[in-house]
## 1
Amino acid sequence: MEHIYHQGKHNKPVFILLHGTGGDEYDLIPLAETLDPDASYISLRGDVNENGLNRYFKRIKPGVFDEKDLVFRTKNMSVRIHELSKTYRINQDNFLAIGYSNGANILASVLFHYNDVIKYAILHHPMVPLRNIELPDLTDVHVLITAGKNDPICPKEESEELIEHLRKANADVEVFWTNNGHALTQEEVEKSKQWIKKMSSD
Ligand code: MLT
């Protein structure tokens, strides 16, 4: 998986950045720099190619995921994050993963499968990655979800159901709603900034 690593200041967060469908590893760098210009980041490009669009897992059609592929790629992503922590000598507990849309969905799937990969996650406009699986105990996992009440791609009901699953698994979940469809808005960026500060001071 292609990636960009940027080393920031010591004692600052280390973001893992996961773009939306059709994006690449450069997409969320301005977001990371706005959230904390001193942070380190690792930005990963999705290695599924859907008619020229990068994604993190295959889908059958918009909104319908190829679950077999999703499970396979979720495992790969978890292994990859583990390897990256070794390569760059970063304690895995210091990672704060940020995903938008398809990136949020692979991240949600990582949380649905493993409780020792990501402790801090920001999911922008996520969906339920897959159903009928038992989630691990997510005590000590902190999640910020920002979603659009009128998002045509990741519907409100999907984000609501995801919040319920994560809370049932004992994750600490904070939620922020917007009214700007699927767009990632300035208000969400501000909310993320506050949440990151809160997590860093805990
Ligand atoms: C997905 O396929 O992950 C969702 O439909 C969002 C997106 O299109 O990226």
## 2
Amino acid sequence: MRRGRFIVLEGGEGTGKSTLLPRLAARLRSRGVAVVETREPGGTSVGEGVRVLLRDELDPWAETFLFLAARAQLTAEVIRPALAQGVWVICDRFAASTLAYQGYGRGLDLQALRLLNGVATGNLEPDLTILLDIDPVEGLRRKGAQPGDVRTGTEALAFHERVRKGYRELCAASPDRWVLVDAAQPLEAVESAAWDAVAALLL
Ligand code: TMP
């Protein structure tokens, strides 16, 4: 049996990943492809527990290990078994989120993060990563952040700018496995560009 394909949606805040994901899954299903939709951190009971723990103000490495724990569980419990059965998986965030947020955003060592991602996932790499790219000012506005909100202050904005830069660097470094989609476009245009990349995997 042919292994399923592993597709990941990445991007900063308010890029519309969670709106796009079920639409791509529906298009694949309409072509007869079995698809599992999942998300990080989450997708397993361990992951949902990690989401609760992440509400605390955490040391950056403590936060990293929680994301990694959720990722290890999701990979073992959901992603690998599905792929092995020929089912495709679309995941809202994966290892690149840790590189972008904890690495580029918080300044943790990228080499160490890459190593830990590899350990947590058994070096599982997505077949395709779709980067939904948007100016963080617009992304945070879409997410409903209020003026004066800590998440939109100058410091928070600088953090999200670093995350965006990180994602763009990761995308540019792997043009054969990543595609950048301008998430400021209307949803139909975003969906169409993302679908072009997904449909190429059907060939
Ligand atoms: P989301 O469900 O809205 O995508 O939120 C998840 C948040 O967690 C988002 O702010 C990004 C962050 N995150 C990291 O900082 N590192 C990670 O490895 C992952 C998966 C998410």
